[in-house]
Amino acid sequence: MDLKLFLATLAGKILAFVIRLFGSGATAAPGLIALKIDPNFVRKLNRKIKFGSVIVSGTNGKTTTTRLIYDILSTKYKVIHNRQGSNLLRGIASTLIANSSILGKLKFDLALWELDEAILPEAIENVSPKTIVLLNLFRDQLDRYGEVDSIRAKWQKSLRTLPKNTTLILNCDDPGISILENSFAGKKIFFGVSDSKVKLPAVVGVADVKHCLVCGAGLIFTAQLSAHLGHYRCSNCDFRRPTPNVSTVNLNFKPDFSTSITLSTNGQTLNINYSLPGLYNVYNILAAAAVSSHYNIDFSTVKNKIKEFSTAFGRFQKTKIKDRKLVTFLIKNPAGANEVIRTISQLSKINLLVILNDKIADGRDVSWIWDTDWEILKDKVDNIFISGIRRFDMALRLKYAGFKLSKNNIYKEVNYSILNALQKLSTKDTLIVLPTYTALLDVQKTLNREGEKVAKWQKQ
Amino acid sequence: MAKTMTLNICHLYPDLMDTYGDKGNIIAIQKRCQWRGIDVNLVNISVDQSLSDLEFDLYFFGGGQDKAQTVVGKDLQKKDGVLKKAIDGGAVLLSICGGYQLLQKYFKTKTGEIIKGIGLFDAYTEGSNDRMIQNLWLDLEENLKDEIRKIYPTSDKEQLTTDLIGFENHSGKTYLGKNLKHLGKVINGSGNNGEDKTEGAVYKNAFGCYLHGSLLPKNPHFADYLISKALERRYGKVKLKPLDDEIEWQAHKLAVDRTRSQA
Fold first, then answer.
1. Which domains are present in chain B?
2. Whether ipTM exceeds 0.90
3. Which of A110, A134, A331, A338 could pair covalently with A77 via S-S, beta carbons 3.0-4.6 A apart?
């Protein structure tokens, strides 16, 4: 028997029990203590998982994609995943502790890990994944993650160490992701959008890949769908968008924030209507469909699970407070925020509350709001409300985007901003709330207190 | 009323040096001119595009990723003469982070690689292991304070401050030559190198600094100073119409407050 492993599991379990007793949300703590006792804790337990692990990473969409994959794979496997928030190694450890016995016996046969892009290399080393899904790379919280180029370089180095029986699932529309195929000799599955235009307003995008990552010449985009995502080829060498194995056409985004698409995989084609908004969720669905096809899940099951799916923790959430409708979209970086803005710009009349915080989890640098194309909303917004720690930076951004602001609509307190904004609207109006990450926690508090009962996100 | 004035702006390498939200500086200058009835001409100039047949009042050069910096550094050598001539002729230039570094003599990376700059600023930068990432607050150099006081049109003298606030994110440490003036003294943050309390550089009307944020929207006095200096070359001393900068100063103050809570 492995004494270290036993002690690590025991300590983690005791700590998890105590935490539950006091109702605290410190979900990473049991994992942290287990890793302190046995640094190889994750490595040892992962080795025992019957069908191995699936890893999901990328700047945007990993939480939604992972949950969707979880719903689909759970129809065939006993799946666990680090749903409770922490996407660092300690989050994996905590999830393993919760799902294994004291003697290290596992209560599942497949593990699904959502991982922070910065720790992907470390996780690959510990988890030895069977499948890796890489969604996209955009500039994000430069104060925490550093530049896109340097993250990609670390990924490339890590992917070179993978055994050949691993499967890599890559977004072929992101040249910064498709280039990764050169770093790996095993099986690759590509997913992408085949439409060459999307019916959403164009934004002045920020593209993080403009030049060929092989030779440095300019990239030619025959279709630019979102930031640097699209159909591209190098103007000089033979680097080009790979043909997707899993693809979609006929994207139709509806004003009620539902979407319909035609999805194709392995020669099978399927029309799906589902209740998630925006192009970014199309990519999340494509990634999940690619994983499902790789794990031989029946196509009709995939369709049903996509239709039934509702997103995670405020990424897109419809709710009500006293008969007034609210729709919340998390914003956290220019690429993601631009997609949200494109999506809501389909409404003819918009009542908007933007909440900008600058805590560590939001990114302490708020410069990114200047890379976000608020301008396209200016003629559609009826009422604009602003809150959060950096509310005046946000107000300034909107002022320079041409919005008419009222000083009375800028609030220090998040809870107050929501209730006051709602009060100024008629019951027919919908308030669109765009909070950054830590602001979303405050929004949830208000919704939990004032609104319809929302499922507690902490619960599995 | 005299005929409408026009401000000609050149955004240098906007496609490559666009990582840190510095675009807000261009927006701020455009809007603050438009609100005063000053026309703005904006031209983007990037790799393999010549500067020589064009004349600009104001140049802007932002920050980008390391890889982009290498590409831009090479191309910049071809624009060296034109750019220096423009600055010597009184044109205004604002450079931030990567742009600021490339206008110095050289940048020596951590691995010892040398990226040649054009030496507009008598300074150099060396890569380090220190991450200088935080809100950066500085007290402007005395001379500049006086000039800004004369130029910035405010009806509320109380509100006028002579500091700058932004967000720095760099690991390169910049050291200024003996005769090169700094932009200001660091109150909170690291600045040029985290050692000598200086931040930024000033050569004639060319400015370099590490202030993202975006810088100019929440430092309206500095934005107006750059605008008025840029117009002065062709129109003589210009009196700028005052604007309602209440939100600008609120954002400024709130950001300054955040420097007090950082470690």
1. 6-261 (3.40.50.880)
2. yes
3. A110
